[in-house]
Design goal:
Elements (H helix, E strand, L loop, with lengths): L1 H26 L3 H48 L1
Length: about 80
């Protein structure tokens, strides 16, 4: 599932970059295109921050799950 999501995000980013490349070639860098680039850059920064935080949150949850499973295995070995 994560691979599909990652590939979808990469494809969407490439499509956006291609559209802006054609816009720049066709009309040059106008104020509107420059504003969109700035907003896209800010959105990229915000998304990156959220992904990093979500990654660390998932790591902590996964560690708790692993510890719980290991504890269950130890209890079964003792019995």
């Amino acid at each position: 599932m994560k691979k599909i999501f990652r590939d979808t995000c990469i494809l969407a980013s490439l499509m956006i970059l291609i559209v802006f490349a054609f816009s720049i070639i066709w009309a040059g860098i106008t104020q509107e295109i420059m504003l969109v680039f700035q907003l896209f850059g800010l959105a990229f920064i915000y998304v990156a921050i959220v992904f990093v935080l979500a990654y660390f949150l998932e790591l902590s949850v996964t560690k708790k799950d692993i510890d719980y499973i290991n504890e269950k295995i130890k209890k079964r070995r003792i019995q």
